[in-house]
Amino acid sequence: MSAPTIKRTGRAPAPAQKPERGPGGSSIDRQRRKLLVPFVGPAFVFYTILFIVPAIAAAWISLNEWAGSGPMTFVGFKNYIQVFQDPLFVKSFINTLLLLFVVGAVIFILAFAMTLVLRDMAGKKVVRNVIFFPHLVNALVFGVLAGFIFNPGGMVNTLLKPFGVTESPAWLAQDNIFPLIMATMVATTTGYFTTILMAGVDRIPPYFYEDCALAGATAFQRLRYVILPLTWDVFGTCAVLWTISSIKIFEIIWVFGGSSGAGIPPTQSWTTAVYTYVTAFSGQSTPAYGAATASAIISLALVSVLVVLLRRAMRRDAIEF
Amino acid sequence: MSTTFRFSKTLAVLAGAALALTACGGGATTGAGAKDGGTVTYWSMWKVGEPQQKVIADAITDFEKQTGATVKVQWQGRSNTTKLVPALNTNNVPDIVDGAYAKLAPVLGNTGEALPLTDAYATVVDGKKVSDLIPSKYLAASNIKGADGQPWMLPYSLSSDAIWFNAAKNPGLVTAPPANWDGFMALLNKEKAAGQVPLAADGDIAGYNSAWFSNLVIHSEGPGSFAKIAADKTGAAWDSPAVLAAAQKVQQLAQGGYLINGYNASKWPAQQQAWANGGAELLLNGSWIPTETGTYAAKGFQYSSFPFPGVTGRPAMARADFVGWAIPKKAKNPALAQKLAAFMLNKKYQDAYGTRALVLPIRADALTAPEMATVKKALDNATEVYQADDGVTFPGYTTKVYWPIDDELFLGKINATQFVAKMKTAQIAYWKAQG
User: How far apart, in whole angstroms, are the C-alpha atoms of residue B426 and residue B430?
Assistant: First the structure.
């Protein structure tokens, strides 16, 4: 069943593509090479101008002390040392990792569970839309809603009162905001990944399940031996998508604490993205672009390393069926 | 890594499209033909529809009529200063911007990117020089002066703070407000004993929380004293008994049960809403509070206030944060921009700020709304003025050092001694990292 060569299917984003083995014999291969420049060229130029050049500029700025305008002073790695020695940065970094790993794990466990339940469920299309919906809602809405729901006189406490709960937890206390944000992220993102995973599960031919039924496989065995191997490349893509997006999580934190943008969120809920933003654009003090870009470069390095490691860990030969 | 590459490619295309759209937007505003009087580009902190915007828009119309100049104004909102920073590195620099001192200083004043407004201050408006129109005590606040000793900012209004209350419910406070901190605490205790909730505070806004400690230090040690403490690289300034005393007063507030239950776990504007609906008697907040809470205040609410409790024997003080104009050094038409700034200080517009926009105009002779009467009186009586958090703008100091630790004190997590110790340690580390 498993083929040694990788065949592009064109459905899901392709896994890391290895260089073609036999140096282009067929005419299709030659055609392909001819089209490489016109097709990849424009994107490459855009990518270079909009990403590579700014990234190099950022790397340069991170070695300087700069208020965003006016004179720049070269300070070497001082900004990096300063950022790493800042307990706030360390705290923000830990929060970023919590989002990436803890929220990520919960999301994927739930998404797989839902995929299994939804596969045989009547009206699964409707359900799929319903669970996908939170992903469409702007994070700002959740930030504002948090106030309505969790304020001391908010919905939750009002609902709890008839049950005799008068000393309800301080939901929006500074230390509780980050766990609430994590829960919100799970609620809003699970549907998105469920939808992608389900697309992968849906293309598994039904005869595999019939086979399972005949062999008397349990639901878990079916997951372990059929569904997981056959959706592995989809899952790998989702994991990379989550890694990239989780490290950039910003707006929900900005609006959840700190009064929907009127203030600054409590430091307990900062991530590296928020740390970077506050350092450069807090509006309350002289901008420190050097330190901000240093923090951004560290985040970039983190994403790159994690994505490479993830791709490596998830590397399997694609299974054709 | 083809997945990431594709993903980035999509992003690249999107970013390109966004850039193209922005470019179109920019072209539309800069492409109009100029009249003889020259052209000036103005990035405003107000958005279309805000009361202040209407006043400024009227003034601009009059200015264009009288001088034949063209003012290309962009109502950008509060993010105008954030947008200014990258713009300063390009040729697309506005001729004039407005904003609060705390926002303009970090991007223009402190970085030496602002033009000295000598000409604007020398202009004659309503028969008087601009420098004479603005009460000297505000101009004496040295921090709007650049390295060359010339002011780089021309203020047009002030924001101040006060302890606000409903005069319909507490008429006694109008005639006999507490004179000092002990009087203030006595008032809180009296209300608490009477079964009232004395105080409201939106504890999630660090800048509101820090007003207590900053004001207490400034009122006992004088304007500039908190900035001096913050600038002390050895951190020894935090050992002063006066600093501890101020922190103890904040601790007293936080742990004395004076604030609405749950103030430490709520989201702005829940607490000021509660206050405006009678959930608490007093609120320390800015001069903008009547406008901000006006829409949801209880029926018959009469805004009144008394100044932050002073220290007996100390001169009367008031917080006065400038909102005003600044002109970047790179402006293409700085002369006309200065002319515009001075023009907008005409009494007609200053009166309109006071009566239509309900803010505090900078000119002492301008009219103000009844809601502002008590704050205006406090400002007029003050012999010394100070700025919020004493105008401290060291990079990241407020947001990363002072506010987080002050929050812990005001939200009742640590006591005064712990606060002072934490601040000292954090400040030493901060200055060491700054090098």
Answer: 6
